[in-house]
Recover the amino acids of this structure.
């Protein structure tokens, strides 16, 4: 997918009906991406789709077949299910090899632990029952539960998700357990890396208002790509100041938290809850309301809402308008606007004039809100 681009005035829209109007949100997910994009778009957001990873298929996965055979060689004491999609993939692959009934029987004879509701639902759908699931949906709590029990000589199958749970398995092995990692799916770089690179560039330029993450590996891949592009520091600073990071849960958020970055996540790790968090929190980060020339104006993200009509603006136009809106009626010189919107570039004051012209055009019949003060600069109309 390409980058989001500014448009001319939209049809009238209510900020209450479309609370994310004016905001551009980056989506890095690969699984259920279409659902997440639809939920955000339905609330008025512009979405930049840039899957940070892709999931390799299970076909002819010799490692999974070998791990499954090992699980069936002798009775299992514990089975850990970490993801719904991974558990279903394992059961489906075993069925295809003719081992479905045998694997189900082996798991039924063991104590089954599930990491959260999705894994629990998948386990139950396969005709099994879980013995315990942590309310936190955290892998660490699963580990704590297991370490509180005698593990010497116990056989534990761990259905892994995306990245190997090396520390989890090592802690169990230190207590004498035999651990069988069952890697259901593996992450790989996206087939087309261009979209995620563009998203990183937009993040560094603060053209993205929020980034959503649904897996820890996606965060690792996103930051690694930023480093490779020479934009790691700029992206980290953007996440620290102007770009809202929203994760599906605390496990997903851990890498950002470890980097000292502010991160939000919903109480329940669901896509709908993630979108509600974005919808509730993002307007607080970038919303300004004022009355100008008899109009109710709301500056929200990269849009201006005038009397319930919404106008999407370019990044430069947004910066210029926000500068003028700090003190409606005050005159800002071209030099001052140049400093604010073109810092570090070799643009001259003609760039300011062109940007103001495009801003007026984007505002349509409300373009006269931007007033020229001859030989001094520009101001936002107050009456």
């Amino acid at each position: 997918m390409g980058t989001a681009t500014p448009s001319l005035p939209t049809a009238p829209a209510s900020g209450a009906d479309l609370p994310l109007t004016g905001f551009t949100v980056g989506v890095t997910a690969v699984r259920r991406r279409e659902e997440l994009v639809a939920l955000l778009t339905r609330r008025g957001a512009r979405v930049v789709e840039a899957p940070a990873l892709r999931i390799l298929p299970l076909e002819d996965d010799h490692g999974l077949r070998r791990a499954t055979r090992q699980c069936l060689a002798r009775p299992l004491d514990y089975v850990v299910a970490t993801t719904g999609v991974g558990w279903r993939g394992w059961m489906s692959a075993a069925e295809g090899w003719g081992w479905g009934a045998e694997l189900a029987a082996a798991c039924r004879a063991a104590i089954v632990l599930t990491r959260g509701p999705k894994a629990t639902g998948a386990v139950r759908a396969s005709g099994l029952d879980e013995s315990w699931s942590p309310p936190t949906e955290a892998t660490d709590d699963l580990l704590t539960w297991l370490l509180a029990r005698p593990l010497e000589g116990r056989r534990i199958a761990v259905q892994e998700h995306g990245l190997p749970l090396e520390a989890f398995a090592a802690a169990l092995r230190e207590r004498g357990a035999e651990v069988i990692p069952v890697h259901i799916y593996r992450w790989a770089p996206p087939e087309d890396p261009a979209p995620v690179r563009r998203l990183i560039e937009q993040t560094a330029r603060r053209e993205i208002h929020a980034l959503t993450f649904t897996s820890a590996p996606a965060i690792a891949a996103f930051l690694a790509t930023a480093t490779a592009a020479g934009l790691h520091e700029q992206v980290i600073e953007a996440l620290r100041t102007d770009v809202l990071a929203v994760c599906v849960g605390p496990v997903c958020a851990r890498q950002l938290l470890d980097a000292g970055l502010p991160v939000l996540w919903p109480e329940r790790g669901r896509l709908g809850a993630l979108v509600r968090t974005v919808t509730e929190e993002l307007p607080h980060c970038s919303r300004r309301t004022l009355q100008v020339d008899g109009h109710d104006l709301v500056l929200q993200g990269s849009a201006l809402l005038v009397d319930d009509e919404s106008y999407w603006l370019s990044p430069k136009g947004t910066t210029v308008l926000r500068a003028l809106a700090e003190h409606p009626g005050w005159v800002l010189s071209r030099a001052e606007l140049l400093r604010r919107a073109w810092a570090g570039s070799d643009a001259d004051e003609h760039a300011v004039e062109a940007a103001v012209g495009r801003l007026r055009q984007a505002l349509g019949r409300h373009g006269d809100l931007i007033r020229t003060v001859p030989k001094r600069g520009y101001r936002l109309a107050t009456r």
Observations:
- The chain has three domains: 24-53+190-285, 62-188, 287-380.
